[in-house]
């Protein structure tokens, strides 16, 4: 298995194993009819990465309801009227050979922040009420209101609605965001979920929201590949640090969850985000978690986290530590990373006719 081998998921062919992860651009419309809709920046950004050779391009965290937006400048797909704008993103990705995926999200207690670097809570006059599994604040943000049973059921329906609209828009894969401390992760982790009803407590209760979202989304998307992004650990166990007598969400929890959700076609493995904790970030620091999940479950997985050069990425795939590598920050400043890495690895990949004359021969 090598970096430029194609990969197939539920009949969907992806041209290589260098994928662009979802990364918020913080420039969506903030109000009126353009609230949460993409614009010219999004179109050129995603088209450039497809031209640049990424196999699969995942559109940034897109809220399933306006109050589920991470920030006031994040995308939202919750209405038929949004479809034309999102359809254009899917089209510019696919027309250049990439596969168009989209990540659907609800930010929960981490919503209503200021878009862009620095972030932080919006001022009261611009903020909206946040909700979560329990009324427990994330560091520096207001405490959310504990969700009712009816609100939880509504969120499940909202994920299904947005997934249906995404498929209508032309997206070829749907990713559910269950990582980085957003709503679904908040339900998974005992740090943020102190409920005593059927949506909290033991493993079954805390994972119920994700299970129900997966079931609802699969029902509306049919055979379209379904991805889940997961934080493999809250990093408390690795730091031997307990919070309220718990290590939070752990790698063993993730392995069990992956085993029990066979309807998910692909797992994007990340870590952290639910609790402020020291994370020993470094080159490929999340790859071991992807490898463990892959080895112990047989799932198809992607690894992310400071994968920054061709040799490093190729080794991850060749050694079967992960099936796919996500290249994020490097891909932000250089949309042609896959083409540069192909040259380093002495792999020939086709260039668009429009760019052949500019191809470097040095």
UniProtKB/TrEMBL annotation:
Q: Where is the NADH:flavin oxidoreductase/NADH oxidase N-terminal domain?
A: 2-343
Keyword annotations of the record: Flavoprotein, FMN, NADP, Oxidoreductase
The cross-references to Gene3D superfamilies, in alphabetical order and at most eight, read: Aldolase class I
The EC number(s) attached to this protein equal 1.6.99.1
Enzyme superclass (EC): oxidoreductase
- Cofactor(s) this protein requires: FMN
The molecule here is called NADH:flavin oxidoreductase/NADH oxidase
Q: Which organism is it from?
A: Trueperella bernardiae
């Amino acid at each position: 298995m090598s970096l430029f081998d194609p990969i197939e998921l539920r009949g969907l062919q992806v041209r290589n194993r260098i994928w662009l992860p979802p990364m918020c651009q913080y420039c969506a419309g903030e109000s009126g009819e353009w609230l949460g809709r993409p614009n010219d920046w999004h179109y050129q950004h995603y088209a450039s990465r497809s031209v640049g050779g990424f196999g699969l391009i995942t559109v940034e965290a897109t809220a399933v309801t306006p109050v589920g937006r991470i920030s006031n400048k994040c995308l939202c797909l919750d209405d038929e009227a949004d479809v034309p704008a999102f359809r254009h993103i899917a089209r510019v990705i696919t027309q250049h050979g990439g596969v168009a995926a989209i990540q659907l999200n609800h930010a929960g207690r981490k919503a209503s922040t200021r878009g862009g670097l620095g972030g932080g809570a919006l001022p009261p006059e611009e903020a909206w009420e946040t909700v979560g599994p329990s009324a427990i604040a994330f560091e520096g943000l207001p405490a959310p209101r504990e969700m009712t049973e009816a609100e939880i059921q509504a969120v499940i329906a909202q994920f299904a609605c947005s997934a249906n609209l995404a498929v209508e828009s032309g997206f070829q894969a749907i990713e559910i965001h269950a990582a980085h401390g957003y709503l679904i992760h908040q339900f998974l982790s005992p740090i943020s979920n102190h409920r005593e009803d059927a949506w909290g407590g033991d493993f079954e209760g805390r994972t119920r929201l994700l299970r129900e979202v997966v079931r609802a989304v699969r029902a509306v998307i049919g055979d379209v590949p379904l991805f889940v992004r997961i934080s493999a650990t809250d990093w408390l166990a690795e730091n031997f640090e307990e919070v309220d007598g718990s290590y939070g969400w752990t790698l063993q929890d993730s392995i069990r969850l992956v085993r029990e959700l066979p309807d998910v076609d692909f797992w994007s493995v990340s870590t952290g985000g639910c609790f402020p904790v020291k994370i020993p970030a470094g080159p490929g620091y999340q790859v071991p978690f992807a490898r463990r999940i892959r080895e112990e479950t047989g799932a198809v997985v992607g690894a992310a986290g400071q994968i920054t050069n061709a040799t490093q990425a190729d080794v991850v795939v060749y050694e079967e530590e992960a099936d796919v590598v996500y290249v994020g920050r490097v891909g932000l400043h250089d949309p042609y990373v896959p083409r540069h890495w192909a040259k380093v690895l002495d792999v020939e990949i086709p260039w668009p006719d429009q760019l052949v004359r500019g191809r470097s021969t040095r």
